[in-house]
Design brief:
This protein is an alpha+beta fold. Helices cover 22% and strands 28% of the residues. Strands 6, 7, 8, 9, 10, 11, 14, 15, 18 and 19 form a ten-stranded mixed β-sheet that branches. Strands 1-2-5-3-4 form a five-stranded antiparallel β-sheet. Strands 12-13 form a two-stranded antiparallel ribbon.
Length: 326
């Protein structure tokens, strides 16, 4: 399904999408939620009832069945366009995919997936989504508070089915993008070390006697001399697994107060641009691949690096290139 595009500047705040032939037979309300994924079902239905949704120029009911090929216009009122969405410290939650029962978002760093000890003062991902788009969705899995990237939520029977899949080792592939201190050697491999989970207020650890089997595949994507960009794929789902495994082979995350040597990081840009700064662990859940129980088809979703992670990578490249040239 194509992403909606904005009309020419003189058209105002109007989003336009064309219904592909493959979506023939789909109800208008369901199609709107998928095509205009950045807006909640509640907002879209209110817009349709207010006459702000037009199909080939005509107002249609939410239950209207599409034939394929129609031009669908969604007009956004100026007051709605200007209204800020709920954000943690000014950072929003990007919707990567949404349909009736599945929601996948890109979680910002610093946002816990849900409440718990020690994070009562922070707004959780569930709280940030509840007002606008949650509508009965619950977490299928979670990622660390300071890790950014893809998180899946679902509701109804799909939530139960996906939760079972995510708990089954090997059923779901999660790909993480990490910046580490030093360069792993060899440049690709598998870390197979048993891990004991962190207790309340403690760190996890490699534990040959009491730890649970834990496996992470890794690949050095870029050698940056004093650092590296690493693709990490956990094959098991232990708490802090990637952080612990990368630290265990001598290349902890560039910033990691628990398992690394830095609580913060800054690097001057030799070209005179803004310095790169990291105040959180540079670990990003970049790709999520799983079988959709509804169709039996494999679904792969991706989220690009966030600004702080991307800027750190850019400056590291410049510094590495200059070092090689000397």
């Amino acid at each position: 399904m194509p992403d909606p595009t904005r009309d020419a500047p003189n058209a105002g705040a109007t989003r336009v999408a064309v219904v592909p032939p493959s979506d023939a037979g789909t109800r208008l309300d369901r199609w709107l939620v998928a095509a205009f994924a950045g807006r909640s079902r509640r907002q879209l239905m209110a817009a349709a009832k207010a006459g702000l949704v037009r199909v080939n120029g005509r107002r249609e009911r939410p239950g209207h069945v599409l034939a394929g090929g129609e031009r669908v216009e969604l007009r956004i009122e100026s007051t709605e366009e200007a209204r800020p969405t709920p954000t943690p410290r000014g950072r929003g939650v990007e919707v990567v995919h949404r349909d009736d029962d599945l929601l996948v978002v890109c979680k910002p760093p610093g946002v816990p997936c849900h409440g718990g000890a020690g994070i009562r003062a922070r707004r959780t991902l569930l709280e940030l989504l509840r007002e606008d788009v949650l509508a009965g969705f619950g977490l299928v899995h979670r990622i660390d508070q300071d890790t950014s990237g893809l998180v899946a939520l679902a509701r109804g029977d799909l939530k139960a089915a996906l939760s079972a899949s995510f708990a089954e080792e090997g059923a779901v592939e999660k790909v993480y993008d990490a910046l580490v201190e030093g360069v792993p050697s060899p440049p690709s491999g598998t870390v197979d070390l048993p891990l004991a989970p962190p207790g309340h207020g403690t760190r996890g650890r490699v534990d040959d006697r009491r730890g649970k089997p834990s496996t992470t595949d890794y690949l050095v994507v870029e050698d940056l001399r004093t650092a590296a960009r690493v693709r990490a794929v956990p094959r098991t789902g232990r708490t802090h697994q990637i952080r612990l495994h990368l630290a265990a082979i001598g290349t902890p995350l560039l910033v990691d107060p628990l398992y690394g040597r830095r609580a913060g990081w800054r690097l001057v840009d030799p070209k005179g641009g803004p310095a790169a700064r990291l105040t959180r662990t540079p670990l990003h859940a970049a790709e999520l691949s799983f079988v959709d129980p509804r169709s039996g088809e494999r679904r792969t979703l991706r989220a690009p690096l966030l600004a702080d992670h991307r800027r750190a990578l850019e400056v590291l490249r410049v510094v590495a290139a200059r070092t090689r040239a000397e």
